[in-house]
């Protein structure tokens, strides 16, 4: 059974950093594309970052500020979020078997809330 367990959200001031973690089980790290989506109140779901076959994709809104990384020994994905802005406020979801162009994924973790104050 595929499971994704996200954590690490919180409330920070603009300019600060947070690191989200996602512990995966039930699949090998190179079996599926993995990554992160977010959804802000009243807005649609947005792909944030995705890693697959050694390639990494970032949404334009987070390029240069967010970094996706994997610790395969720990079966954990990370999203390092730096220079956070109020517009980054959203519920963040880790996901597996991602089709980023279609804004969808097969497997989802529970969301973790990120709130950035100005």
Write the layout of secondary structure elements.
Blueprint (H helix, E strand, L loop, with lengths): L2 E5 L2 E4 L4 E8 L8 E6 L5 E8 L2 E4 L7 E6 L4 E6 L8 E10 L4 E5 L3 E6 L1
Parallel strand pairs: 2-11
Antiparallel strand pairs: 1-3, 3-8, 4-5, 4-9, 5-6, 7-8, 9-10, 9-11
Could you give a quick summary of the protein structure above?
The protein is mainly beta. The chain has strands at about 5, 10-15, 20-25, 35-40, 45-50, 55-60, 65-70, 75-80, 90-100, 105-110, 110-115. Strands 2, 4, 5, 6, 9, 10 and 11 form a seven-stranded mixed β-sheet that branches. A four-stranded antiparallel β-sheet has the order 1-3-8-7, with no helix packed on it.
What features would you highlight for this structure?
118 residues, mainly beta, 11 strands, 58% strand, globular
C-alpha Rg, in Å?
Answer: 13 Å
How much strand?
over 45%
Q: What's the count of strands?
A: 11
The topology string of helices and strands comes to EEEEEEEEEEE
Low-confidence stretches: none
How far apart lie the N and C ends? 41 Å
Q: What is the makeup of the main sheet?
A: 7 strands, mixed
Q: Helix share of residues?
A: under 10%
Structural class by sheet pairing and helices = mainly beta
- What is the residue-mean pLDDT, rounded to a whole number? 94
Q: Count of DSSP helices?
A: 0
General form:
globular
């Amino acid at each position: 059974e595929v499971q994704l367990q996200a954590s690490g959200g919180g409330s920070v001031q603009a300019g600060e950093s947070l690191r989200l973690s996602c512990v995966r089980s039930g699949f090998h790290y190179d079996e599926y594309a993995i990554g992160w989506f977010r959804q802000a109140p009243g807005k649609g779901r947005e792909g944030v970052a995705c890693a697959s076959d050694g390639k990494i994709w970032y949404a334009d809104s987070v390029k240069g500020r967010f970094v996706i990384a994997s610790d395969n020994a720990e079966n954990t994905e990370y999203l390092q979020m730096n220079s956070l802005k109020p517009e980054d406020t959203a519920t963040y979801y880790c996901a597996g078997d991602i089709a980023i162009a279609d804004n969808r994924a097969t497997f989802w973790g529970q969301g973790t809330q990120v709130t950035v104050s100005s």
